[in-house]
Specification:
heterodimer, A: alpha+beta, seven-stranded mixed β-sheet, five-stranded mixed β-sheet, 11 helices, 30% helix, B: alpha/beta, five-stranded parallel β-sheet, four-stranded parallel β-sheet, 15 helices, 37% helix, globular
Chain lengths: 405, 383
């Protein structure tokens, strides 16, 4: 876009009607992850181990391709397989500028809004059991979409709810779910303004599935974005991690464990987000750490921003119950799903103020600064272990599989 | 967290690491941790960062998933595809590739494959589904074998007729012997497996010290356990001793667990030989169900193909399991073979040396690590 210099800023979105000029890509750099790129990457490295590692780093940048011929449960776990499915199938076929951001919400420019944008997000809920300590499928469905909007700086304006009901479902169960949605919507300051219902024969669905879609308003669209992340930025969490996934896992009864104090953390986050934005905190980016956990979000940030993230294990807020469950089942709290936790990337100078603001709210009471963004090594996430070592934190692969001994 | 945090103390770790560095001198040390649980701990806590570069940990053959040969996995998948069968196994196994896909793929294809945390959960499934046949794919060393044995005793006592075990239990001593006999390996000593030893005790390792003159220290699974174990092996060599020592006294009794051993003896018998991934056939290295339990033995009740499948040509899991190759030295490591698309078993289980190295260890001991560690010093005064 040589004739619009201002447009070449990273993170710029095409405004409606501007043709994309493919010919502008003059850079002769080999495609990321290609054989030529790998050759170039390892050309000057003498140490054989480093050569192997550099080759892997280059291959990780490769555009993912979907190798499976059938959908497996891994494709829904929110980790690497989910990413591959989204990028190699959905984003590939449906390709358009708003979708390619692959954000929690899409942002659509609309003329006459004074630079503000409409944000849109959708999410389906299939949780089993429907009711668990601290929440239920209805509350999740409202908070999930509200939060996907909120982390983009969008104030939720209205939600839709679409139900798929299994023949034979107890109406009292449905009523309880819908009442819970009403309560959650009231709490989030939003209304469920439209909806749809389908019924499928017994056995073709598991009781009920619900999809919510939300529309929100982003008043300052340029304020948040992966492209705004800078080396040195602080990485913050608003709350302790792993509560939701652990709770549902135990409620399902697959494992004979009990943790009475364990509750899902499902809650709306717009109040917390707007508090930060209204106070003028220099927030650069936020993302909701749901499936795949905080580890997956940090990897998305590192890879999309082309930067590194280093975190400290000792600073991660994790409740003792979650640590216990994770320890026994051999899984990592960093990979467990949350329903009320966001990762905020904030300018280092504003980090302490952001923490104070978060801690003044119940949903931010356990806010913590867990690490920082670094320039290198590109695309990687590290953890400094409490024991004094370091290790790589990669994306979730497959479902969180427990170790067996 | 009580009983765990005490063994993860960073100050103690630093002090112990410094002492190991001081005593290691100029020589290069090669110490093998036999057990996959140790491999996992080493990478999860970044223990190699605390060791001097002349002390090398070699990752051994003790990951139960990693040693399963492809043919035995395909046998399991064939069982899982039987529409009458509910197939149960531990979670790690589900992603291991067979000759034609994994259990996870079979599940996506319609097979009823369920993850369990204990063989008792599989037995419970059998009582809850009396019209189905529940098969438990049993794997693991002497650590998990007693729970399989106990489950079979329960099944018999309860008169459950629709529960079956496909037994792939293996024993720890024969592969250790195979490694010690391997000509291409030079080791200074062993970190002995902790939980296996809680069952068998520490005496079975005496052949390592007596015949092969290598010290063995049985260690626990917390990071300080491992550092202390490394130090104890070094001390033995520096002081000219060579014995089996027990660092994991809080769990391991020198004589093991007689009750577990008795249950194992009642239910299992040794197989004449068993195939190990990458190590080939090793005699008397695995367990089968005794004839009294034939009605629970999936190998006898069902028709299993029993075809032997050669490991993929490019796969060098055998060399990695023996500690001859480091994970990154394998031809396909990180390129054709990654945790999402594993070729070899070592890349699947979180206890596999390759998966542990790929997931956690990349960049450890590298210049990048120096830079990342440098950041922790600045943590005190972040502002």
């Amino acid at each position: 876009m040589t004739d619009h210099p201002a447009d070449s800023a990273p993170g710029h979105r095409e405004s409606a009607g501007t043709p994309i000029q493919v010919a502008d890509i003059e850079d002769a750099k080999p495609e990321a992850g290609s054989g030529a790129a790998i050759k170039a990457a390892i050309a000057r490295i003498a140490d054989p181990e480093q050569r192997v590692l550099a080759r892997i780093a280059e291959m990780r940048k490769r555009k993912p391709s979907l190798r499976e011929t059938a959908i497996t449960m891994s494709h829904g776990a929110g980790g690497k397989a989910s990413h591959t499915l989204v990028r190699a199938l959905f984003a590939d076929v449906l390709s358009n500028p708003a979708l390619e951001e692959l954000g929690d919400q899409a942002q659509l420019p609309v003329s006459g809004l004074d630079g503000a944008r409409i944000a849109m997000s959708t999410d389906s809920f299939v949780v089993s059991p429907l009711f668990f300590p601290g929440g239920d499928i209805g509350e999740l469905a409202v908070n999930g979409t509200v939060n996907d909007l909120a982390v983009g700086g969008a104030q939720p304006l209205g939600l839709s709810a679409a139900f798929i009901l299994e023949e034979g479902l107890d109406v009292a169960v449905l009523r309880r779910v819908v009442e819970s949605m009403r309560a959650a919507a009231d709490r989030a300051g939003v209304s469920i303004v439209t909806g749809d219902t389908k019924v499928v024969p017994r056995g073709k669905a598991d009781q009920l599935f619900v999809t919510t879609t939300g529309v929100g308003l982003v008043r300052e669209p340029e304020r948040l974005g992966i492209a705004r992340i800078r080396p040195g930025d602080a990485v913050l969490l608003n709350a302790a991690i792993g509560d939701h996934g652990s709770t549902v896992m135990l409620a399902r009864g697959d494992v004979d464990l009990e943790a009475e104090a364990l509750r899902s953390d499902t809650r709306p986050l717009w109040g917390l987000v707007s508090t930060l934005l209204d106070a003028g905190v220099e927030v650069h980016f936020m993302r909701d750490a749901t499936r795949g956990g905080v580890a997956t979000v940090l990897n998305e940030i590192a890879q999309q921003a082309g930067l590194a993230v280093a975190i400290d294990e000792d600073s991660l807020p994790v409740h003792d119950e979650v640590r216990g469950v994770a320890e026994i089942l051999g899984i990592e709290p960093l990979y467990i799903a949350n329903e009320g936790v966001l990762v905020a990337i904030v300018a280092a100078a504003d980090a302490e103020r952001a923490l104070e603001l978060m801690r003044s709210l119940p949903e931010g009471a356990e806010a913590a600064r867990i690490g920082e963004v670094r320039e290198e090594p590109e695309g990687m996430v590290f953890i400094r272990t409490g024991f004094g070592g370091t290790r790589v934190v990669d994306m979730l692969i497959g479902d969180p599989l427990p170790r067996i001994c | 967290m009580k009983f765990a945090d005490e063994f993860r103390d960073a100050d103690l770790a630093r002090a112990l690491g410094a002492r190991i560095a001081a005593e290691s001198g100029d020589r290069h040390w090669k110490i093998m941790e036999v057990c996959g649980g140790h491999t996992h701990t080493i990478f999860k806590y970044g223990i190699e960062d605390l060791l001097p570069s002349n002390v090398e940990l070699v990752h051994g053959p003790g990951c139960p998933v990693c040693v399963i040969p492809m043919g035995r996995l395909d046998d399991g998948i064939a069982l899982a595809r039987d529409p009458e069968v509910i197939f149960t196994c531990f979670g790690d196994l589900m992603r291991v590739p067979g000759a034609n896909g994994s259990l996870l793929d079979a599940k996506a294809d319609g097979a009823d494959v369920r993850m369990v945390y204990s063989p008792l959960d599989a037995l419970k499934l059998a009582t809850q589904n009396p019209d189905r046949k529940v098969v438990f794919y049993a794997i693991g060393f002497e650590t998990t074998a007693p729970s399989t044995a106990l489950t079979l005793l329960h099944a018999r006592a309860q008169g459950v007729k629709n529960f079956f075990v496909f037994c792939n239990h293996v024993t720890i001593i024969p592969p250790m012997k195979a490694i010690l006999d391997s000509p291409d390996l030079r080791l200074d000593g062993f970190l002995g497996p902790g939980h296996v030893s809680s069952v068998v005790g520490i005496r079975p390792y005496e052949f390592v010290t007596n015949t092969y003159n290598k010290p063995v220290v049985v260690v626990g699974f917390e990071p300080l356990d491992i550092l202390q174990g490394v130090h104890m092996v070094m001390r033995q060599i520096l002081e000219g001793r060579c014995t089996v020592e027990n660092q994991y006294k809080r769990v391991v009794h020198d004589d093991g667990n007689p009750k577990s051993l008795e249950v194992l003896g009642r239910v299992f018998a040794l197989r004449p030989q068993f195939e190990w991934r990458g190590l080939g056939f090793i005699s008397q290295s695995a367990l089968k169900l005794r004839d009294e339990f034939a009605e629970y033995d999936a190998e006898k009740v069902f028709t299993v193909p029993g075809i032997r499948v050669a490991d993929p040509k490019a796969c060098q899991c055998g060399e990695v399991l023996k500690g001859v190759l480091k994970p990154w030295e394998c031809k396909v490591f990180g390129t054709a073979c990654t945790p999402e698309t594993p070729i070899g078993t070592c890349m699947v289980s979180s206890e596999g040396a390759c998966a542990a190295y790929y997931n956690f260890g990349r960049y450890s001991r590298s210049r990048d690590r120096e830079r990342v560690l440098a950041g922790s010093a600045a943590n005190g005064d972040r502002r």
